[in-house]
Design a protein that fits this description.
There is one protein chain. The chain is of the alpha/beta class. Helix content is 31%, strand content 12%. Strands 1-5-4-7-3-8 form a six-stranded mixed β-sheet. It has a two-stranded antiparallel sheet with strand order 2-6. Helix 6 packs across helix 8 and helix 7 crosses helix 8. 41% of the residues are buried.
Length: 268
């Protein structure tokens, strides 16, 4: 049972799609950021959705998110969008480490990998898509900064994971995605290998935003980052091995990346 009336002040919902406001005390001022420029998707990763919502609202837990999307498609807002919710933890993207200040966090109710990891219901995915579009209508978040928690914290997090249907969001104009190159036999790179092709792989991943060294050595960090990339962009096989499918998908993703605001004008 979710307590809808704790001793925390209510606030007006930012999104008209929010069916209710369940205030969390766990938030603060955004730091050195005028407005969020990342939309970060999570799964709740607990056996019970009610337990997860309680966790996100508990002062002792010191975690929160801006929104929770329930399995039946209902949406609750926990933290005002203007505030810095505490959902990303230790994280990194494109040189930034305070991802909480830069992002809006959406928790998607799903028990996650530790508790069976069921598929996301279609009605829930529809609600996530609608909420994402609504958030993007208020904040100029680029498509390539609609990210998974596993993208910004690959050594710690797997969510929302390889079962999350990013292609549905992309179909409605949310996020950056390309058609996966199917896995096949052929050359691949894995932990312990060295060389210029590995350095090129690392450089592409780092340029996209991932926290990976450009060393030419396929180290443990490279492996977890490749696995995180696969969870989001090459979901057919998540193994941390950079096979031809992974490399081609990464190349297509990088080649079709939307230009940053003003970039086209600068190039012209």
């Amino acid at each position: 049972m979710i307590d809808a009336s704790p001793q925390i002040p209510l606030f007006p919902a930012d999104s008209p799609l929010a069916a209710e406001v369940l205030p969390s005390p766990n938030h603060g001022e955004r730091v050195n950021v005028a407005a969020p420029d990342i939309l970060l998707l999570h799964y709740t990763g607990m056996e019970s959705t009610a337990q997860a919502v309680d966790w996100l609202r508990s002062p002792e837990r010191q975690v929160s998110a801006h929104y929770v999307v329930f399995e039946d498609g209902r949406i609750a807002q926990l933290v005002p969008e203007a505030r810095r919710a505490w959902h990303a933890g230790a994280s990194f993207w494109a040189g930034a480490t305070d991802i909480n200040s830069r992002s809006i966090g959406v928790e998607i109710a799903n028990p996650g990998h530790e508790f069976g990891y069921p598929p996301f219901p279609a009605i829930q995915v529809e609600a996530v898509t609608a909420l994402a579009k609504d958030i993007l209508s208020r904040h100029p978040i680029p498509p390539d900064r609609v990210l998974a928690h596993s993208d910004v914290a690959p050594t710690r997090k797997n969510d929302p994971g390889e079962k999350f249907p990013w292609e549905v969001l992309h179909r409605f104009g949310v996020g950056h995605l390309v058609e996966e190159t199917p896995p096949s036999d052929g050359r691949y790179f894995m932990r312990g290998e060295h060389g210029q092709p590995i350095e090129a792989l690392q450089a592409m991943l780092a340029l996209y935003g991932y926290d990976v060294p450009v060393s030419g050595t396929y180290c443990a960090q490279t492996e977890v980052v490749v696995r995180a990339f696969q969870r989001h962009f090459r979901r057919a096989r998540v193994d941390g091995i950079a096979d031809v499918s992974t490399l081609q998908t990464l190349y297509k993703l990088s080649a079709t990346r939307p230009a940053a605001p003003g970039e086209d004008a600068a190039l012209g």
